[in-house]
Every structure is written in structure tokens, then in C-alpha cells.
Amino acid sequence: MPKPQPSQQFVPIKEIRDGIAVMEDGSLKMVLMASSINMSLKSPDEQQSVLVQFQNFLNSLDFSLQIYTQSRRYDVRPYIALLESREREQTNDLAKIQIREYIQFIKTFTEQTNIMTKNFFIVVPYTPSIIETKTGPFSSLFGKTSSATTTKDGDAFSVNRSQLEQRMYIVQQGLVRAGVRTTPLGTEELVELFYRMFNPGEQDKPIKV
């Protein structure tokens, strides 16, 4: 029977550093959380304007993007826990009864109706281009090459991050014209996002109050 392998072996992320996901293949990725647009509340002319702006944005890019939509059932347990704590702190009996009835209403409503929450993310990638140049006529014998970026990892990361941030700025400006607001995820937010992606069952576990 083959020995089971740890799940980390199947995750293509080497590290998350300064809000950037460093992949195993050396590429870098930044993730933007994007706002949504309710097209049904807009007039036909406004809808057409949004679509045209978004189309122009996509056509203006010279690099690829990944659009990720996260749809999950809304977790009301933290809200229920907050209400229960307020009920215990309440000294007025009438207020206690009202809070208890409201808690029961929320529980019943969420059990009968699937309340979903959607989050939208834009993944901006950057793959450093390493151009090797020969340092001499016998460099092929000794394997001496020079990188187009730098030989120091710290300096290389700074240079590559600068290139990636330029791409991120282009994406942000293009989406703003279409009426979409974005904000980059930080290190902790990226860790939480990837953790929930690779551990979807964690949301169903009971929470400690």
C-alpha cells in the first residue's frame, strides 16, 4: 500500500512574502479583491458603458490575468455567538426574550434558505525573465553565466516585486474605469485565502466561543 503524502506537497506555493505569493516555479502573484457591480440596477446605457470599459481594459493588457470567484454559504455562527453573548450580558428580561427570539429566527431562516456570499479576486502574475549571457569564450566549460536580474535573492525579489506592482497598478486603473474597486491582499489575508481554498471543510467545523 503506497504511503500517503502530505497535502503540502501538492500546493504549488513556495512562500508568501510581503503580500506576494512566490510559486515553486519562481513566478510571483499578487491577488486583488474586487468589488461587484449590480448590473440589474443600471440602465441599459450604463450597462453597455460598463461592458465597453471592461472590454477595453482586457484588450489593453499584454499579460494574462486570472479571475477567481469564491462562492460560499454564509457562516452566521460568529453572529449567533455575538448575540448569545449579548443575551447573557443583558439584565432586562424583556430584552433577553427579544434577543432569544431573534436568534431563533436567524437560525430557522438560515437553515431553510441558502444564503451565499461571493468574493471576487483578480490574480496578477509575473514571471521573471532570466537572460543568461556568456562571460567568456570558455564560460560554457565552467558554467559561468550572469543573470539579467541580479545574483542576490533579496535584490532580485525587490526588482521582480516592482515589476509586479506596476502590473497591479495597470489592472487597478483599468478596473476603476469600469466601476470596479480593488484592494491588494496582504500576507495574512493571502494565507487565509489559500488556507480556505485548500481546506474547504474547515468552515463546517464548530467554532469556539
Q: What does the model show?
A:
With 209 residues, the protein is an alpha+beta fold. The two termini are 41 Å apart. It has 2 domains: 7-72 and 117-204, no CATH class; 75-114. Helix 1 (44-60) runs antiparallel to helix 5 and helix 2 runs antiparallel to helix 3 (93-112). Helices cover 44% and strands 20% of the residues. The chain contains 6 helices and 8 strands. The strands form 2 sheets. Strands 1, 2, 3, 4, 5 and 8 form a 6-stranded antiparallel beta sheet that branches.
Structural class: alpha+beta
Q: What is the radius of gyration computed over CA atoms, rounded to a whole number of angstroms? A: 25 Å
How would you sum up the global shape? extended
> Approximately how much beta-strand content do the residues carry?
15-25%
Helix-strand topology string: EEEHEHHEEHEHEH
Beta strand count: 8
What is the helical fraction, as a range of percent? 40-55%
Poorly predicted sequence stretches spanning 5 or more consecutive residues? 131-151
Structure annotation, total helices:
6
N-to-C terminal Cα separation, in Å? 41 Å
Question: Averaging pLDDT over every residue, what do you get?
Answer: 81
Total domains: 2
Q: What about the largest sheet?
A: 6 strands, antiparallel
